Amino acid sequence: MRIEKLWKNLCQTVRTGARRFRTAVAADVVLLLCLGAFTYREIYEAEAWYLEEAGSAAAAAAVGCIFAVSLHLFFERRGKEHRRVEAILTAAVCAAVFILVRGHSWTVPYILLQTLGAALSFAAFGLYCLEGEEEGRSAPLVIFSLCKAAVVGTLLTASLNICLMAFDSLIVSVPPNLLTLLYFLTAEVSYIFAGGQVALAGLPVYGQRAEMPALFRVLLARILWPACLILLVILYLYVAKIIFLWEIPVGMMNWFASLALLAFAVFFVCFAGDERHPFLKSFLHRGLPVFLPILAVQAVAVCQRIAPYGLTAPRYASILCTAFGIFLLICAFRRSSPRPAFLVLAVMIAVSALTPLSILDVPLRTQEARLWSVLEENDMIRDGTVVGNPALSPEAQEKLLSASEYLTERGQTAFLETPGMNDTLAELRRSYEGEDTVDWFLFTPPDPAFVPVAGWQEAYVFSDTPVRDGVLVVEKGTGAEEHCDVSAYVAEALAYAREHRAGNGVNRFTREMQIDLDDRSRLCLSELRIMARGAGEEGTAVNMQGVLLKR
Question: Would you say the pTM of this structure is higher than 0.90?
Answer without folding.
Answer: no
